[in-house]
Each structure stands twice: as C-alpha cells, then as structure tokens.
Specification:
The chain is an all-beta fold. It is built from 1 helix and 8 strands.
Length: 179
C-alpha cells in the first residue's frame, strides 16, 4: 500500500512542569494518515476533567501533526511536531455554601515536538506510543484558596487566580483501526 489511514482512541497523560509538576490523566481520539515516507496526524485530547476538585485547569486541545518515520517496517519509530488549538478552563468555587461556580477560561496555540513508535504498521490494527513536549503560547489560570480569620469565629475565603504559560510533557498509548 502507498497510503494507509487509521482511526482510534488513546489513553493519555500530561505532566505540566509549571507552576508545579503534577500528573494529569486523560483520554483522546486520533486519526493518522500513513503516506509511508511521512505521517500526518489529527487528534483531540482532554486531561484533568474535574478541575473544581483539583483547582487546576482542565486541559483540552485539537492538534495537527506531521512526523518523519525511520523506515517502513512493521515496528517504526518516528519524530515530528505539530500545532494545537488548546483550551484551559478551571471552575472556581466562589461561594462555598451555595451551588454557584465561576469558570475562568483561556485558549490559544500550543506547539508540540516529540516522537514515538508504531507497532504493527502494515496491519489493519496498529498500536502507537508517543512522548511529546508541549508549550502554550498563552497564559492559563490556576486557582488558590486562602482562608482568612475574620473576628473571633468567622473565616473569609480569598480566591486568588494566577496565570502561567503551561509547558510540559504528554504521553499517550493508542489503538488504531485501518479505514
């Protein structure tokens, strides 16, 4: 075959290294076009779905990628990069005693570079493992809660939102089916 295409799902994880490193689990979907001398990918992923509980942003994005494979064998390593449109959102528990929440959202472009390996490349079912470094070109919100004592018996919660340029590592394992 001169070109194959795959569609599949992936289990992903993300480790943003700022403001502090923390593992963020997630999942995603992908489409991969294999033109033998070049690979083209389109994928969607989401990490840290419960941002209200962790006070860290939910990270999601759509990525277009191009990769250079080292050969055309059944087990093929590859390197490359891509550009993603990413969205970062975090729910803020503004009123702790009511069910009212605010959401802070930011979005923009994210650059990615990395590599991986395709297993069972010439088959109708393939496995893909990837490691990527990513860097956001926009600031993302992080939330801190600080309780302050008010009088003898009360407390007041101060909500502090700080913005960071997130960067770090993404890991994924995927299973694709030929289409």
């Amino acid at each position: 075959k001169s070109m194959s295409s795959y569609i599949g799902g992936q289990i992903t994880s993300m480790v943003p290294v700022n403001p502090n490193a923390k593992f963020e689990g997630g999942f995603g979907l992908f489409v991969l076009y294999d033109a033998r001398n070049c690979l083209f990918g389109f994928d969607w992923s989401i990490h840290n779905i419960d941002s209200k509980k962790t006070h860290r942003p939910t990270l999601s994005g759509l990525t277009l990628s191009a990769y250079y494979p080292f050969g055309t064998k059944n087990i093929t390593p590859f390197i490359g990069g891509g550009l993603a449109y990413s969205r970062r959102s975090v729910e803020i528990d503004t009123y702790r005693y009511y069910d009212e929440d605010d959401e802070v959202v930011s979005s923009g472009l994210t650059g990615e570079i990395g590599g991986g390996v395709i297993l069972n490349r010439a088959s109708r079912v393939m496995f893909i493992a990837q490691v990527k470094y990513f860097a956001d070109f926009f600031e993302s919100p992080f939330v801190e809660y600080r309780d302050q004592k008010v009088g003898d018996y009360g407390t007041k919660t101060q909500v502090i939102t700080k913005n960071y340029y997130i960067n770090g590592f993404k890991f994924s394992l995927g299973l694709g089916f030929g289409i």
